Amino acid sequence: MIAMRCAHFIFFVRDQARSSLFYQAVLEQAPRLDVPGMTEFELADGAVLGLMPEDGVARLLGDSLPHPSRAHGLIRSELYLLVADPQAYQRRALACGAREISPVQPRNWGHDAGYVLDPDEHLLAFASNVQCKDAPS
Questions:
Q1: Distance spanning both ends of the chain, measured CA to CA
Q2: CATH H-level, domain 8-129: superfamily
Q3: Could you write out the three-class secondary structure of 6-50?
Q4: Which of 41-55, 56-70, 75-89 has the lowest mean pLDDT?
């Protein structure tokens, strides 16, 4: 078994600067890396959210796969964040241009969770564990 040190989740975005500003406001933190071609935000337990321009990944992959822009309008991913106050995250996301899919409410798996689409149509969930309300915000 290989010991995993960190997990990076990369979202392909239309406009890196716009997406960076969106996530800075929603996560209430500056990116740890912000250079042409990649913006990174630290998440819990060493996980990283990366934002890569669609054209950048298309250059990496060449013609072997369709251009990521062909998937616009399709839900391609979900980032599920356990936070202390999902309502606050949901409000910030909506104020920054996200589209609400479902308000924060009790779910049958034991979390209060709400869902939004970010400006690039990635599904974001902001949740708290009903039994453990002391998750870091």
A1: 32
A2: 2,3-Dihydroxybiphenyl 1,2-Dioxygenase, domain 1 (3.10.180.10)
A3: CCEEEEEECCHHHHHHHHHHHHCCCCCEEECCEEEEECHHHCEEE
A4: 56-70
Among residues 82, 101, 78, 100, the alpha carbon closest in space to that of 91 is found at 100
Low-confidence winner among 9-23, 54-68, 69-83 (lowest mean pLDDT): 54-68
How many CB atoms sit inside 10 A of residue 53's CB? 20
Residue 21: what residue type?
Answer: L
Helix (H, G, I), strand (E, B) or coil at 62: helix
Q: Is residue 50 within 8 Å of 9, Cβ to Cβ? A: yes
Structure tokens at 64: 């072997």
Q: Residue 132 carries which DSSP code?
A: B
What is the residue extent of each domain of the chain? 8-129
Residue with tokens 């902001």: 126
Q: What does the pLDDT average to over 76-81?
A: 88
